[in-house]
Protein 1
Amino acid sequence: MRNAFKRYSIETRETPPKIKLPPKFLVKRYNNCMNIQECTVVCIYGVHRLNDDGTIAEPISELCRGCHLCVLACPKGAISVEINPEFLKLGNSYFTPDRMERIYFEAETGRVPVSGAGYGGLFAGRGFDSIWFDFSEIVRPTRDGIHGREYISTSIDIGRKLPYLKFDDNGALLSNIPKNIEVPIPMLLDAPCTVSKNLQLSVVKAAAKLDTFAIVRAEDFYEKLLSYTRWIIPRIKAEEIEKYTDLIDLSQIVEIDCHGGEDFKRLFEKVREINSSTLVSFRLPYNDKSATIAETLVDMRADIVHFYIDDKTVEQNPDYIVKAIRAIHLHLVDKGVRDQITFISSGGVAEASHIPKSILLGADAVAVGLAYHIALGCRVCYGENRLECLVEVGNGDVEWATQRIVNMMASWRDQLLEVLGGMGMREVRRLRGEVGRAMFYEELEAKVFGGDL
Ligand SMILES: [Zn+2]
């Protein structure tokens, strides 16, 4: 039991990127400019400024938000605002330039990005983008978690839960209550794709500051991480469990890296023999067998199942992750065992809204991967062009990298609070599997246009 109520808060600090993204807009002033200076008056973002001698300075494209007021205000038509072709080259069709820019803003400021002129994306996309939140409760402004008028909990419990409790005739509890670990956010940090000690340390320190967990490949563990084991889940290959008995002994949660054909029960017992109190998580790829594997894991009393899919596959087929999370959740609900296991999902998480979307589809928690790499400079290389990847965390950069990750996660938590507030929900635990709080494009389309025609 926790003895004192403590409101969870994340300390954010302005942390600019090392390498800026190319600006989205290019603002140009042509030589028919007559120094009329209307642009300096109308621009509220500071793109147009005066030099010390009173003449107009070169426009600062980085500050432009694309409102075009200066273009309209200039009587000479001497200004143009265009989308920067270099900006459009960023990322890919899933980790779009706009999403990357958002992550940069979140990682720099820790704040919620304000789109200003409304939602700028496509009306509906694929995968997570085909789901909308139902904010019908937005008329109740008291449920406002960010500004704290009413507390909204983003905590979840990791671990197995009993379907029911058994008591003896005198009312004494007979059941052994399995261990649960409460984390204040439904987000974990997955292992980084590039192996760099400083990057690994930054991720672990960020997890400690957020009071959540970082998943660390056992082979990447090194002595500086020892003081952070409280926030580390070692990820151990199924065939290497014996190699890491010390690490297993230190850990509250251990993740076993599996492919699907392993003898799960044997692996589970092996880990429990080394550390009888550690929670055991099975890391498995999402595939057609996921739902039945999850059921098997419930039957053998595993604590956690962590399904993952690589982001490249999600980019090619964004619908897959949506269907996969839902199928696993519903299968376990069908069997009446859903609450007995914690389901962590990884994959396709490119923006804050993908966290509540993963949860409403049926996951308990989400492990964040590529998004924090982008916050640190990765240009969506999928770990394939390691030599070209811009993620570089030098010895003096650990604090910088830690804070960028913490800022992004703080912003994502605030956005989660906004979603919960809009839905009138007081805790994220209730969001799990709650598709009634969402609208699915496919269903709406069928309803409106008659899908069976
Ligand atoms: Zn990269």
Protein 2
Amino acid sequence: MGEELNDPFSSETDNPIDDHLIHDVSFVEVEHPPNDITDTDAKSRRLFDIPHSLPTKQGLARIVTVTNQKGGVGKTTSVINIATHLAMRGARVLVVDCDAQGNCASGLGIDKSKTKITTKDVILTPSISIQARHATAVEGLHLIVGDHNLVGVEESLSAQLGRERRLVEALAILRPHYDLILIDTAPSMSIVSVNALTASDGVLIPVQTEYLALEGVALLMGTIQEVRRILNHSLGVDAVIMTMHSPTLLNTQVAGHLRETFGDLVLEPPIRRNIRLAESPSQGVPIQFHAPQSHGGQDYSLLSSELEALWFPGGLKNE
Ligand SMILES: Nc1ncnc2c1ncn2[C@@H]1O[C@H](COP(=O)(O)OP(=O)(O)OP(=O)(O)O)[C@@H](O)[C@H]1O
Ligand SMILES: [Mg+2]
């Protein structure tokens, strides 16, 4: 006769399956719960292995992905306003919206319902990238529009070889004609985001100076390392931007921890929380056109100057 089968749902304690379970958990009361964010962030600090990026290749645009899997941290706002500032400084700038929400279009005054060729088409057919660009209200700033169709790209690409390198191919055509290509991403790590990282020289990470600011950043660093190892050996972190900053004790503490964690990679100043920044997209213009003297306008202007120095140490040389 064979052995009697154990019922996995049986409450008998001699069931070998139960050996893996913890029977006598005793909760140890913590006398001083670590309510100070220092502990969390110090732990994260040890976990991070941050690859630094390399300088821009001569004669080619610097390609930078703005990313953070956390939603609503100011990725799109940063893309729009940094791109605008640098275009106003004379750089030739292309924004590629890799987010299905497609918010770059409205922020730059473009009606995305009227656009025919979008980022989705560019990823599926990279050679089309030249025809996908739209002029914006800002001279020297072009946009490839993202829209809801990006959601289906994952499925369309699933059977394709080299599906992570579609944007590399698409941007290779455009790269000699721009100084900067800024890619906005969705708050998730999809094949589209991986395409963006694979095509990039650097990553810009907006982080809100709030509690749990670093949540997900360890994961992002892991993704960057993976992309670096398998798809793009020269990918690195360009900078961390502190966003939606208020002069509260908590925000100030978090800003301090971010500086400790990321060191020189943290750019100054933090972007202050400012209603003018939230208003601008509804006007279809960047902050530099809507309220350049507002706190938001001033902060993005100073921050963009820092990025200009970082990306173009020899200055912007236009034809
Ligand atoms: N410094 C700021 N002060 C006030 N409001 C801001 C600031 N930065 C961004 N916002 C507003 O916060 C909201 C989220 O910003 P944004 O869309 O740039 O974030 P996101 O990271 O791109 O979001 P998602 O992850 O959904 O793509 C928007 O309504 C934006 O106008
Ligand atoms: Mg966004």
Protein 3
Amino acid sequence: MENRLRRAYLEAMGIECWVPRRPDSNAPAGDDTSAVGPPQETPPAGMDADAGPPDWMDEVPPPTEEWTSVEMPEILPVAADTVATLDWLALEHRVSQCTACGLHAGRQNTVFGVGDRSAGVMVIGEAPGAEEDRQGEPFVGRAGQLLNAMLSAIGLQREQVYIANILKCRPPGNRDPRPEEALRCEPFLLRQVALVRPRVILAVGGVAAQNLLKSQETVGRMRGREFQFEGIPVVVSYHPAYLLRSPDQKAKAWQDLQRLVGILKA
Ligand code: SF4
């Protein structure tokens, strides 16, 4: 078998190959390039780096079209099938231990969710910010205070709704969640929705609405329309943090809250 083909084949099988080091042709004569630069991999004891793959590898048939076209199994976001059966205690514990995406490395706390676990209204935001990460609770700080005030305006206290985010860990620098992060975290939110079984969901902000409703549309285009998530009516509105920056949009958010009240009264 040709060396190049054999090496590709071995690498496809997860077997490392060592290629004999060649002097850097750009290095000055006599310069030992192996003495500088990043450390070089060395083969395990008993293997000769210059010998290449052992001869018995030649007896292994080359990959067939069928073999090479096998698709890699899809990486499950988290073990979605098992998450779907967890009770509150087990679900919260699973989230606290989760390392399914890279965000786990930078978190101080997971931000699971807070509020009445049998609430009629579930508020879903996008992801924890710095303060939420510190406190382990969603919607704290100024945006949280505005959310509380919005809820209060329709006769609801914060403790009477359930509040959660698309992501349970903070993205660095308050950047938007990446699609793969949202996908990996999704089973947790799905289970929270299934356990709460709210009468209406208030999705605040584009990230929440887009991930929940699998849409690319802006909040401006989605608000005022009828959507459902898992058979539950969804009201799309602006994120309180956005309303703090754009107070002229508060009137529209008020209209959205009125729609929510209408759904609750229906
Ligand atoms: S953001 Fe979600 S999926 Fe990622 S580590 Fe945190 S809990 Fe796990």
